[in-house]
Amino acid sequence: MTYRLGVDVGGTFTDILLVDESSGTTYRAKTPSTPDDQSVGVLRGIAQACDAAGIGLSDVGDVTHGTTVATNAILEGKGARVGLVTTRGFRQVLQIARSFVPGGLAGWIIWPKPEPLAALEDTVEVTGRIGADGSVVEELDEADVRTSLEKLRGQDIEALSISLINSYANPDHERRVAKIAAEVLPDLPVSVSSAVLPELREYERTVTTVANAYVQPRVARYTANLGEQLADAGVSGSLSILRSDGGLTSAGAAADNPVSLLLSGPAGGVTGAAWVAEQAGFTDFLSFDMGGTSTDVALVQDGKPRIGRETTVGDLNVRATSVDVRTVGAGGGSIAHVPELTQALRVGPQSAGAVPGPAAYGNGGAEPTVTDANVVLGYLPTSLAGGEVTLDREAALAAVRTIADATDLDSPEAAAAGIYDIVNENMLGALRLVSVQQGFDPRDFALVAFGGAGPLHANALGRLTGAWPVIVPPSPGVLCAYGDATTCMRDEAVRTLMRPFSALADGDLRAELHELADEARASLLREGLGADEITVGYAADLRYHGQGFEIPVPVDIEAFDGEGGGLASLRAAFDAEHERLFSFLLENEHEIVTVRATATGPRPAVGAAVLESAGADPSPARVGTQRVWVDGGFADADVYRRDALLAGNVVTGPAIVTEMDSTTLVLPDHAATVDPSGSLLIRPVDQAAENGTEG
After folding, report:
1. Residue 507 contacts by C-beta under 8 Å, 6 or more apart in sequence?
2. Which of 643, 638, 640, 653 is nearest to 683 (CA)?
3. Hydantoinase A/oxoprolinase domain: which residues (predicted)?
4. Are 211 and 117 in contact (CB under 8 A)?
5. pLDDT band for position 389 (50/70/90)?
6. pLDDT for res 332
7. Taking the model in full, what pTM does it have?
8. Which of 78, 137, 412, 479 has the greatest CB tally within 10 Å of its CB?
């Protein structure tokens, strides 16, 4: 038997999922994260998962890892001191940035502008210039380059970034500066913009390259350290890191281009959701990942997450391909409060975190949180994980009662219901950002709910969105690790063209795409994949002449040479997407700005577990009842053990389904059908009856 490991490191816990590739049987472990050295928590969790499976670490094959090392370096401001080399006259490129200020009118008055990742005193200019067409306007002054780099050597920088004007059109000057830097600043990691982001727009290219340099030393140390520890422990398989776009890259490539890892964690959840939804027979869905502090949502169509061209972490916005994930400050630890000015109940974005946590945890927390509301409502039993976790209902009641007193509500249960409803509305707003505001009707999609808190709110969000069924996967608290273990290798190549359609022939574009495909395949071939195992997808960023933004459009290379193919098909696809997004078209000429090719390896041959079939009666899994507050009054809800439910069982609400890492709430007039894949499919009772046990 062969085993594959998925590892997801979060801020509080490290999740490990060990998968028997032949049978699909999974073994999981959850251990506290170790922020000072994440590899400590990872190795501890791997050992626990292997013990559960009864195997040694030498039996483990490939290790796939979603990491927050790069993300945390940005959020905590603990990256490297970065030196920046620019073209003469562009020293303030990061300070000038873009003329966008968040907030409303006069928002600039109170907006604290974030400090650039490369300080002005660590930024130098060099003489030499490339034109927008790639021609050399002014030769590179190598003596000036050496003088400037000598200055940076005296600044004690820890990483170097090089971003020269128009280097996307001709990288020769940047490459020469990098070679001189290897002599003047030996052993210093160097990020070159023409390699990190070979696209136009000097600010976006520069800030992305600087961000890459900022996190590079920390990511390189971590991947090298983890790789060595895995090898020392006897793990013979390769170590791969999850990219922000949901694909895998080798540990070495991740260390060279860590800016592509900034959304590694959330991307794992979306790819895991795609896996479990496919097993249940669904390809179009909204993903909903609710943790302790925040909720991440995304939209998946035809089994593929929507991909964006920007990645945002904290105040930093870089140009890097990533799953289009939106985040809202709503989680189990979100604090409810009543501002004196408005006297209206609010929930979040402040969070109680893990320490002291919700009042129900008994760790000294006193402020009312979403978790406390769920305890008061009866949705969270006071004994969880087989009795290993006990929640303090009296402490939760006391905390939530402060909200009842501040709002003149007649009971803590009514106040808790208000907290529950408001946090659901907050998460609905995030779901609308990836659906309605992108031109999609959520009623055309299923809803996959996961994370530790997601299944408690999933049924309610299904009612709000009309997205059915609501799919609650097995082990929803470790789904990100499942995504890491079931995704595939990926790399991309990109090139800026900047040509109007009238100046570009079909043959020219086809040749560009084939060249990019060869570039994208190269890294996967170096990793040992066969040419016949690699598939390539193509896309182009298009706009109307005069527009300041582009819209990505997929390119069907198979139909490119057919009737209605080529540039004509791209024009039609862009017009359709533009009308879907903005409800209008322009008469302006179309322009192609950027083209890219994405090479993807085969998905791992991981078998899917299939539950034993049974009838609709779930009573063998019933372990008791719980008094809950629903729809304005008390009701008795049956409580079921998730691991005792069988395929075909139908759990009718109100009901609570408990498991090691999460709890699922089924509301009245709804039913959860157990799919053979192990997922719970929640629908209104009439729909559940129509669908039976079918996914």
Report:
1. none
2. 653
3. 205-487
4. yes
5. low
6. 86
7. 0.84
8. 479
